[in-house]
Amino acid sequence: MRLVLVGPPGAGKGTQAEYIAAHLAVPKISTGDIFRANVGQGTPLGVEAKRYMDAGQLVPDEVTINMVSDRLGEADAVDGFLLDGFPRTVPQANALDKLLADLGTGLDIVLELVVENEEVIRRLSGRRTCRGCGKIWHVEFDAPTHDGVCDRCGGELFQRDDDKAETIAERLKVYARDTSPLVDYYGAQGKLVGIDATGPVEDVTVRAIDALRSYGA
Questions:
Q1: Is 45 in contact with 66 (CB distance < 8 Å)?
Q2: b or e along 133-167 (b: 16 or more beta carbons within 10 Å of the residue's beta carbon)?
Q3: How confident is the model at residue 217 (pLDDT cuts 50, 70, 90)?
Q4: Which of 15, 40, 97, 216 has the largest count of CB atoms under 10 Å?
Q5: Which residues are registered as beta bridge partners of 195?
């Protein structure tokens, strides 16, 4: 099975991608992993991407798509894959459709993790990071024994700028502008399946797998 996972920041895509890919016995392919691999190995695409990243610029779609193309051409992805974090825009989705068509295949399902903005802000703004060991706690879901103190190492807990409510709200605006149009794009193709991504991680995984089973996965 070939599928894409979409959803706003804080929807739990990374966690669900791991479980769903394991269930389907396909590789989980994230743009973050692809970038790190190419930059770390010093591939021509990695060198080009690093040049933009070092300058604080977005890596052009062409470079990202070429990296994805190389990865999808590897042996473990021939019979299926789960893409997490790509495509992020409709032009990238168009490019992915063309790439897969050139490979003689196409996407089977696009799974959307549906979460309200208020829930996203609640999830992300509650995170606290330890200055000592780096462990992430949550004031509501995984609170330390003592406020502001890491149970693991006794280090000070702090809220990263990325986890502040105003930053999260801005990220959600960017998602709504750039990525949410993918919902209409794939909906028009009849490939979109939305699931409720609220509640315990295990419950969301069950909903996702049940939805995929209805499509023969």
A1: yes
A2: eebebbeeeeebeeeeebeeeebebeeeeebeeee
A3: low
A4: 97
A5: 113
